[in-house]
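[Help] Beginner question about ligand-bound structures

Sorry if this is basic. My supervisor gave me a protein sequence and a SMILES string for phosphoenolpyruvate and asked me to "get the holo structure". I don't really know what that means in practice or what format the answer should be in. Inputs are pasted below exactly as I got them.
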Amino acid sequence: MQEARWSIVIPVKTLIRAKTRLAGAAGAHREDLAVAVATDTASAALACPLVARVIVVTADPIPAARLSRLGAVVVPDPDKGLNTALRAGFAESVRLAPGDPVAALQADLPALRPAELARALTAAAEFEESFVPDAPGVGTTLYATGPGIPFRPRFGGESRARHLSCGAKELLLDGIDSVRRDVDTVEDLRAAAALGLGPHTAAVTARFLVG
Ligand SMILES: Nc1nc2c(ncn2[C@@H]2O[C@H](COP(=O)(O)OP(=O)(O)OP(=O)(O)O)[C@@H](O)[C@H]2O)c(=O)[nH]1
Ligand SMILES: C=C(OP(=O)(O)O)C(=O)O
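Answer (accepted):
No worries, everyone starts somewhere. Holo just means with the ligand present. The predicted complex, written as structure tokens, is below.
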């Protein structure tokens, strides 16, 4: 078996601003949904055999407490946007384990399977800088760099094109649907449910989504 040595950085937005595209469907459950999705994502990452540590970057005490109880290291968010948050997590990963590869992973992957994350990380280990596009092929769900390689995340909106144009290797693999399935809309949530939601997301989703 391969050694567990990846640092995974997971950014978690302040709840009051999180999952706004799901506000219509989730209503009063929106913040619980954001916490549940991040909990399932971090749980799956922590259960991945190649992952040595999960570093969560957040300014919000609720996900901070929940995810630190799971075993994640929590780093304060400088509150200057997503890529700055990821760089703060990267700095912590270098402090903790300077020789380990690092991957930024979106927090909204509620169907994530540890074995599929391991497949993506095994492929990423072959390149200095790489990424996994989201299911629609517009954004990015995972961005990875090898030890000592500059960490230049360009998340936000149409980030697949930005990661491609800066020279990162696009990892197009079979069998990583759960790594690519981020959830922003109710259609995304249904697509994730078809793959199999983690238990926290399934419980919250059952409160507002029927069928
Ligand atoms: N720590 C941190 N995480 C962020 C920030 N902005 C976005 N994220 C995270 O980045 C990922 C993608 O976020 P978005 O799609 O922009 O936001 P969202 O809350 O998932 O959804 P919307 O509100 O509908 O845009 C999620 O994992 C968020 O938690 C930020 O400023 N700080
Ligand atoms: C932040 C991103 O995506 P989304 O807003 O779709 O979560 C991204 O893919 O870079």
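A couple of things worth pointing out: The first helix runs from residue 23 to 26. The chain has one domain: 6-205. Feel free to follow up in the thread.
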